Write a sequence for this structure.
């Protein structure tokens, strides 16, 4: 029984930082790519960052240079360090514990989603 739990969301000022964490428990995702997506009303869920078990990363264009994803394979945990936050980063952030990477670029999330954590960035 897989369980994916996020934490670390909240309110930040523009230019500030937040650190999100996601832990997959109840099953093993040590060899799975894991990552973060975000969604706002009226917009499709978009990739924020993904990391493979070997440490390879991919970022959405809008967060490159500002966000950093990392993982602890032994604990089935990923982190998203969010620096230089902008109001446009406001969204619900969802962790996915089993992402398929096709052709080295396309990412396909599984249904192993966390419940989502709200990130709000004020001007």
């Amino acid at each position: 029984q897989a369980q994916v739990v996020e934490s670390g969301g909240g309110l930040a000022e523009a230019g500030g930082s937040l650190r999100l964490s996601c832990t997959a428990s109840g099953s093993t995702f040590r060899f799975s790519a894991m990552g973060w997506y975000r969604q706002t009303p009226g917009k499709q869920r978009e990739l924020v960052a993904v990391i493979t078990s070997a440490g390879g990363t991919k970022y959405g264009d809008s967060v490159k240079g500002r966000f950093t994803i990392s993982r602890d394979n032994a604990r089935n945990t990923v982190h998203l360090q969010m620096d230089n936050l902008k109001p446009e980063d406001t969204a619900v952030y969802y962790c996915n514990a089993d992402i398929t990477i096709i052709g080295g670029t396309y990412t396909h999330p599984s249904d192993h989603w966390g419940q989502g954590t709200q990130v709000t960035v004020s001007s």
Q: What stands out?
A: The chain is about 0% helix and 55% strand. The chain has a mean pLDDT of 93. The first strand starts at residue 3 and ends at 7.
